[in-house]
Each structure stands twice: as C-alpha cells, then as structure tokens.
C-alpha cells in the first residue's frame, strides 16, 4: 500500500454531540470553551466548527467570546466575510493543541487502566464497503462502546489512501496489494452481472456470454474492462466488451445501471437489496463468471502495544465476521483468516477460523 499522496474521494465525520453549559469560573467549562475555540481555529469558520461539534452556531460564538473575556484578549478577528486568528490567538491555539492532546492521552491512560475504549478512531473504507456493511458495524460497536467516535474517509481506489492517514482500513478488493500492514481477511463476496428492467425492456437479455459484445456495458475501474471470462461445461470463453461508461466509482455505476444505461458486473453484496426488490436483475446465471471473487480486508498497523480502542475495535470486527454467515459458492470462501504481517498478496495463507 502506498504511503504517499492522499486525496480522499469523500470524507465524513461521525462524532457524538458535545453539550456545553456555561458557568463563570468553572474549569470544566473553560476546557469546553478551549475545545470549541480549537475547532474554530482549525476551520476558521464558526458554522463549520458548530457542525463538526454537533452544537449550535450561537453556542460556538458565545463560548469563544466567553473565553476571550476570561483571558482579557482577542483571539479571533471576525468580519462578515472571513475569520482569522490574531497573533495572540495563533499562539494560544498552538498551546491548546498541546493541551488537548495531553488530555486525550490522559483519557486513554485511564481507559487502558480500566480496559474501557474511549476516544476517536480514524477509519478509511472503500465505497463498496462503506455503503454496505460499515454502517451496521459502526452502529453495533458504538452500542457496545458508546464513548467511541469515528472519523471516516471513503475512497474508490486504494491508491488514493495513505496508510499514515488511518488507524484501521476496510478494503474490498480482488487482489490485495503488497502491504506492510496487518491484513485480516474478513469475508468474501462475488460479482454478478446485472441490468435494470427498463434496459431489458429495450434490449433482450443476453442468453449466452457472447451476446454481451452487442450490449451497452458499464465498467467500474477496478473491474476488468477489456474482456470478461466465463466458464461452463464446454470450457472457458473470453468475451470482449466495449464499455460506454468507465468510471472509478461503483456507486455511480450502480446508479447508471438502475437508470437503464446498460449492463454491469458489480459485487453481489453491493446490489443485494436491488436484486431483492426487483430494480435490478441478475443475468447469465447458468454460467460461471471467472475472477468474480472480492475479499473484504481489515488493515491496520501492527504494534507491540496497541491502543485499547484499536484493539477493542479490531477484536469486535473479527468476531462479528467470524459468526456471520457467508455467501457460499466455492471451497475458497473465507470467513476470518490468520493475522498476516508484512506479506505480499502471493504469500497470504487462507484460514477458515481464527
């Protein structure tokens, strides 16, 4: 996995709301005001700071004003067009960052002592996984550990993610790139060829793989784009496809298929709801699509002493998938495999259960 360059496709922040109550002279409220000021300084935008913290704009404005009154200095220059830090505000922000980091370390220390995870995890996830299993995983984990929050980055291509930017990563790929991270195979899903009823009303469904050559094909960038291979009792057949749409995002491809633009191959787990409700239909079910396997990987840095929060989350995810039923199609299906360290994808050894 590359460790340079990071341009995420989508970024979202999931964070429990922060409730502030002001009382003059209260140290805890001063710390709350410092946290709010630090967020304003980070974004240079009161509204965005309020959004990130889950509080109202008026609370942010009042909190910063109270902090300035307490300190007897102006920290922020505010005009109708822009927000900037004063020289004093810049110096104070730098000290605030140090203080808040120390407070977080103190919280983590106490959590470690009582073995209770707390804090925030930086999670990166492929759009395929983020729009299928991930919301349920995060909801289930936070129901168990309500003190945890998450910073989530969603990507379409693994090369867009730098390993230094996350604590844990979920990737759903056909082939895992060489990685110095710990690699845990969680589950396996398979591709299915789909089209919408509207498209099939205009163009009869292909009855053989060879007929795909005359159809409009849509391709996600991680799918084979020049040809698809099929296997039946008579052997293997390679069909050349000429995509009318080739785009990185599988989410866009799925939406285009639903709109009737053409035929695509997508992960079955990604389209299972649409197949169930009839908005998409599976095609060529009597032949085997070659190279259709995708593995869901859990990736993270291996450390001699992992943070309690990270260890707790990894253990939770591994156990959840160990108990979860699989898409069953072949003997190579994977539930949870052994921990892999500094392996290339040609060296990974599959296992059924930890």
Automatic annotation (TrEMBL):
Listed Gene3D superfamilies: 3.40.190.290, Winged helix-like DNA-binding domain superfamily/Winged helix DNA-binding domain (1.10.10.10)
HTH lysR-type domain location: 29-86
A GO molecular-function annotation: sequence-specific DNA binding
Top-level division of the source organism's lineage: Bacteria
InterPro entries assigned: LysR-type_TF_proteobact-type, LysR_HTH_N, LysR_subst-bd, WH-like_DNA-bd_sf, WH_DNA-bd_sf
Keyword DNA-binding: yes
One GO process term, biological-process aspect: DNA-templated transcription
Pfam families (UniProt xref): HTH_1 (PF00126), LysR_substrate (PF03466)
Segments passing through the bilayer: none
Keyword terms, alphabetized: DNA-binding, Transcription, Transcription regulation
Family: Belongs to the LysR transcriptional regulatory family.
PANTHER family hit by this protein: HTH-TYPE TRANSCRIPTIONAL REGULATOR (PTHR30537), TRANSCRIPTIONAL REGULATORY PROTEIN (PTHR30537:SF35)
Name listed for the protein in its UniProt record: LysR family transcriptional regulator
